[in-house]
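Hey, quick one: can you model this chain's 3D structure?
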Amino acid sequence: MTYCLEGSCSIQLSYRDIPTIVTDILLYLSIVLGVQMYKFSVKKNKLILFFFDNVVITMDVKIESSWKEALKDEFQKSYFEQIVMFLKHERALGKTIYPGGSEIFNAFDQTPFEKVKVVILGQDPYHGPGQAHGLCFSVQDGVKPPPSLVNIYKEMKSDLGLEPPTGGNLTKWAEHGVLLLNAILTVRAHEPASHSKIGWETFTDAVIRKISDQKKDVVFLLWGRFAQDKQILVDATKHHILKAAHPSPFSADKGFFGCKHFSKTNEILSKAGIEPVDWRL
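Sure thing. Here's the predicted structure for all 281 residues.
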């Protein structure tokens, strides 16, 4: 195997080595050295990979059209290319990643940019099978609501008198303008926060800034210290920030219960001439 680090170069490997060695090389060159794959070909059972420095790769990200336009500059940045490469590397090694590829940007698909009026910020996806589907605090149909979501339902009942549903799918909220955004959009199965350092926060910080810069009177619900650290990204002179403890069983009784964020959010929206959220599920 030969390689060079200046200008263009090629790497030749036996086909039987590709599943493990090639993915490691791609990840190393793209993240550590800043080299990007340009093209490849297969000749006589050998895979030839061609690399070039300073090549701009156009990303065709599968995401709702208004967000695709709003975030188009982010998709072309090197950190986003590194996220993509990292996820491909994980899958090539047989790692299970949640949520599935088609649901990584589900929060954006369910709540187009122009419809965002509330942002609820989570940390990273649930890491158990059948749970995560790209919306923070939400789980797929047929899955028992996790403890934090149970406490969210308790506060919703106390605040609005709404009976908790049996399921934990919050898609209806997303369809009514509530962006259910995790700061980290993927996770390795059974390993919480396993993708916390791959660049997702750079991306979701950019999402928050974009909302802050280009919209007005959005209500940000920041539950827990992690979410509250993001308030520096929001222009509080034209948006509204409501803070409370995290709904986790470990902290819900320290300020989440009784916060009345659901009714307060609708009061704020109504005063701004914006249709309130229908919190019914």
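One thing worth noting: Confidence is low (pLDDT under 50) at residues 1-20, 31-57.
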